[in-house]
Amino acid sequence: MWRTHLFATLNFLLILRKGAAFNPCDDGNHFLLPNAGWRGTACKRTRDTSICDRYVETGANKWYKVLGHDDKSPRKMAEEIAEMFHCGTDYPLYLPNGSHPTLDGTIVTRNACMRVGADKCKEQYAVQILKCGTFFLYNLSRPNSCDIAYCFGENETCSKPDPCEEKNRLTLLVSGDRSTSCKDQSLKLCDSVLRSSWYRPMKNSIDVKMASSCVERYSCGTEEPIWLKGAEPTLADKTVDMKACVTVAKSGACSCDMEIDIQVRNCSSYLVYNLSSTPSCPQRYCFGQKGQCHENVYDSNSMWKEPSKIVLISLAMVIVLALLVILGFMIHKNIFRPVVKVNVQPSIKEKDNRDANLDDIIKPK
Ligand SMILES: *[C@@H]1O[C@H](CO)[C@@H](O)[C@H](O)[C@H]1NC(C)=O
Ligand SMILES: *[C@@H]1O[C@H](CO)[C@@H](O)[C@H](O)[C@H]1NC(C)=O
Ligand SMILES: *[C@@H]1O[C@H](CO)[C@@H](O)[C@H](O)[C@H]1NC(C)=O
Ligand SMILES: *[C@@H]1O[C@H](CO)[C@@H](O)[C@H](O)[C@H]1NC(C)=O
Ligand SMILES: *[C@@H]1O[C@H](CO)[C@@H](O)[C@H](O)[C@H]1NC(C)=O
User: Fold this and answer.
1) Backbone angles phi, psi at 322, to 5 degrees
2) Is the pLDDT assigned to residue 355 strictly greater than 50?
3) I want to staple 304 with a disulfide (CB 3.0 to 4.6 A). Which of 16, 265, 298, 311 is the partner?
4) Whose atoms come closest to the Cα of 98: which ligand?
5) Per-domain residue ranges for the chain?
6) pLDDT at 192 over 50
7) Model pTM?
8) Judging by beta carbons within 10 Å of its beta carbon (0-12, 13-18, 19+), is residue 18 exposed, middle or buried?
9) Atom 4 of ligand 1 has which residue's CA nearest to it?
10) Quick check: helix, strand or coil at residue 305?
11) Ligand 5, residues 157, 162, 240, 263: which to mutate, most atoms within 8 A of Cβ?
12) Which three-class secondary structure state does DSSP give residue 338?
């Protein structure tokens, strides 16, 4: 074993010397392995999606880096614990225990095992591993069929749905009274009924952010305002666990007296927030800086939100009223009578006939 190890290391050094410019560890010199968020050993494959690594890139200097989907942390190929139908595939590939090199810049060659039922190593596939400081790169072999895939992330569950996709979040309609500039001691609005979810906060269709510096008591339409503690995430940060502060201080001073767990994600042009209901009242999340306490009263009810809708509804009501007036007028003027007359006429004729018949009967007299 040490012989192959040494050979691989020398080989790597040789590569480094020959093409001093090319270092697989540098950004741009390796690929990102797709579907990384579903390769965890605690991620069961679903009925309709299963990963297959039949078409991974192979050959000289074809290295893969594996990054989690929800966070930016690098993932290691699983060692020893993969079960069938996990790692987002049917037949998972994993490494023997202790396969990863510990020395920086070292390349090792290992055989990954395919798990099929009780058979822990039905097939083997050669994998090269290179340690690049805090992460590893992998030179993979193509499995013989589908669905067979490499496992990354021991005990990692499947990725959560991406909150930057519209279907995975709600819109938080932000009214003026949520802003840090709304300071009205009579307002005691509360987020204790807020549904726990990812939210994209918007005010009149424009993205707004949670207040990110200390907010004093009696702001944001409530007594105890809530604001974001710490720096907003960048795009590369993915989903970040953060704290939101509640200003409780009766002194009027601005302080972080209580912390609430939230998550924040940068979706490039806007931020989304995973919020849950506040632990007590009156506490409320602050969004936006400019806004008056009494604007956008109907903001939380989208039906009445747009003025164009109010105009349409009023117009419809006027038309219905006009129709009722016309109908009333028609009934009053007996405009429907001719129809009734047509129905009555035959009976009059009948009566005439009967009279005629009667005459006939009487005539012979
Ligand atoms: C990666 O593996 C392939 C075989 O699939 C091999 O030919 C190639 O030399 C390896 N690449 C490096 C950089 O070691
Ligand atoms: C893997 O090796 C470590 C020690 O290096 C040991 O503690 C652990 O139990 C091993 N795991 C398995 C599944 O063999
Ligand atoms: C994964 O879970 C197993 C069993 O619960 C445990 O023995 C192992 O240490 C865990 N591995 C990691 C990397 O957390
Ligand atoms: C998201 O992060 C990028 C940097 O990665 C930054 O330029 C941008 O302003 C951030 N977006 C928001 C809405 O803060
Ligand atoms: C939102 O964050 C809470 C913790 O703050 C977490 O328990 C929950 O799973 C997250 N929700 C989603 C949809 O990610």
Assistant:
1) -60, -45
2) no
3) 298
4) 2
5) 2-150, 166-300, 303-365
6) yes
7) 0.58
8) exposed
9) 59
10) helix
11) 263
12) helix
